[in-house]
Design a protein that fits this description.
The structure holds two protein chains of two kinds. By secondary structure, chain A is α+β, with helices and mostly antiparallel strands. Chain A is built from four helices and four strands, in the order αααβββαβ. Chain A has helices at residues 2-7, 14-18, 20-31, 69-82; strands at residues 34-36, 45-51, 57-64, 92-99. In chain A, strands 3-2-4 form a three-stranded antiparallel β-sheet, with helices on one face. The two termini of chain A are 22 Å apart.
Chain lengths: 100, 399
């Protein structure tokens, strides 16, 4: 966890942005995502987020709700806990698709 | 001076376009996040000071399922729910109760101040009201039917006899029915009646015991082996009768009307009612396997192909799954999804037998010797929850 936090203070170069950046932020958000065993396994939610150039994450809203309040709440918590993310080269809008 | 204005204007225009391109028209990229961590759902109870028995019951019932971690009860924190008060705590759901003339229950997630559930209950500070509220919350948070009103009947062995007992769903309230027989081979709980087959004075009997009236009634008696299989909602009884050569599956109603479904020289056993057919175990391919048979006994179809010894089937209330015990490194409980024909082993330690689907469709009671003695366990149909309830065997889960 510490190394992830440390990396978030360094801007990633342009090569990393295209491929590795999204792998890194997926991993970071996933670390903060946990769901109760009671949640069905065949649902998904898509959340649109804006990652500012300083790494702050703004949640724009659900593009697709799972229909399960607990699941939707868990993904919002995961995103909030992950902010700030490593700063991108420039502001970027990401659709994050969560699937158990 | 004019040049400076012109340069400033160009910079402003460039900044404007830069802003536009970075925000409104930025290309959206999609990423997938899968395989989340699994944890218990953290719930806080707030405002149950005046109805402590209700709060205690909700906490105990929900925690026993292993799906929830309950904090509190905490004192009522004012009329308006403030998610920020819970933000730093490890809490995801808050259940608030206000008791004034009625019990007003509201459920919140800590991401919004809008309740996801609101309902009024009669102002009764007792276990029953706690179970009703816990059931609603369980259904809300899991999408499944509540197990809290399940009960199960089971058998305990004494020095020279066996006795029948009945318990609430989590084994905390156990009653002795007082029934004692030399051998008890199967027990089925249906409403307020316990049906059972037993050996007493060299005769096999099928009887039922009325829990409310504490009265016992014999339905059938024979020197042949009689083993109860199942009881339908109309109190029809399906059972096995065997003289050592012929295995007969029969259906009997409480008026004594009898019908033979099948008669064979194979060893047929463990008949169960299913929505449109009968489940049974037969060795007609050389080893015990589970079959479905039509009510007239004319057509039969094999259901299990994995494992050399599959027995003791139980069907889920919706008829979509069967659970059974299968011999592989001891007896283990397997669940077969009939829609997808997918079989999953859900136990692994010791011998695990005698599965009985509970009416909620998610939990089962089983008998296990994993701890060194025969005890009854409550397990979930995915195997994730496995909880010891009490010592005994031959459990049958009902409502």
């Amino acid at each position: 966890m510490k190394s992830n936090t440390a990396s978030s203070t360094n801007k990633l170069n342009s090569n990393e942005f295209s491929s590795s950046y999204f792998t890194i932020i997926s991993g970071l958000i996933r670390q903060h995502w946990s769901i109760p065993d009671t949640v069905p396994k065949n649902i998904e939610a898509i959340v649109a987020v804006r990652i500012l150039s300083n790494g702050q994450v703004i949640i724009e809203g659900f593009e697709k709700s799972s229909g399960n309040t607990i699941f939707d709440s868990s993904v919002i918590r995961a995103i909030k806990k992950s902010s700030p993310l490593p700063p991108p080269k420039s502001e970027v809008i990401v659709g994050i698709r969560f699937k158990p | 001076m004019k040049g400076i204005f012109k340069t400033t204007k160009i910079i402003i225009i460039l900044l404007f376009f830069n802003l536009i391109s970075n925000s409104t028209f930025a290309e959206k990229i999609y990423i997938d996040i899968t395989q989340p961590g699994i944890k218990k759902l953290s719930i806080a109870l707030e405002g149950f000071e005046e109805i402590s028995k209700v709060g205690k019951t909700i906490k105990e019932e929900l925690e026993f399922t292993e799906y929830f971690k309950i904090y509190g009860p905490f004192p009522y924190r004012g009329e308006k729910f403030d998610p920020l008060l819970w933000k730093s705590a490890d809490v995801e759901i808050v259940i608030r109760a206000v008791s004034f003339g009625k019990i007003d229950v509201k459920v919140y997630t800590v991401t919004t101040d809008v309740p996801i559930f609101t309902k009024d209950y009669p102002l009764q500070n007792n276990e029953y009201t706690g179970k009703i509220i816990a059931s609603d919350i369980y259904r809300l948070l899991t999408g499944k039917n509540s197990p809290f009103f399940n009960q199960f009947t089971f058998v305990r062995k004494f020095k020279n006899s066996m006795g029948i007992f009945i318990s609430n769903w989590n084994g905390t309230h156990i009653q002795d029915t007082g029934i004692r027989r030399e051998i008890i081979s199967k027990v089925v709980l249906k409403d307020n009646k316990i049906f059972y087959s037993s050996l007493q004075n060299k005769f096999w009997h099928i009887e039922f015991f009325d829990i409310f009236n504490k009265s016992n009634r014999e339905i059938i008696k024979s020197r042949n082996l009689l083993k109860l299989g199942d009881v339908s909602n109309k109190y029809e009884i399906i059972y096995l009768e065997s003289d050592g050569e012929l295995s007969q599956i029969k259906i009997l109603d409480l008026s004594g009307k009898n019908k033979t479904v099948s008669s064979s020289r194979w060893i047929d056993a463990s008949p169960r009612f299913a929505p449109y057919y009968i489940l049974l175990v037969s060795n007609r391919v050389g080893s015990p396997q589970i079959y479905q048979m039509s009510y007239d006994g004319l057509s039969i179809r094999r259901l299990t192909y994995q494992g050399r010894y599959n027995t003791e089937p139980t069907i889920s209330p919706y008829g979509d799954k069967i659970a059974f015990s299968s011999l592989s490194a001891g007896f283990q409980i397997n669940v077969l999804d009939l829609n997808f024909n997918m079989q999953t082993q859900i136990t692994k330690d010791g011998n695990n037998e005698q599965p009985s689907f509970c009416p909620d469709g998610h939990f089962l009671t089983i008998m296990s010797d994993r701890s060194g003695k025969k005890e009854i366990l409550l397990i979930s149909s995915d195997g994730a929850v496995q909880k010891s309830l009490t010592h005994g065997y031959l459990p049958h889960c009902s409502r």
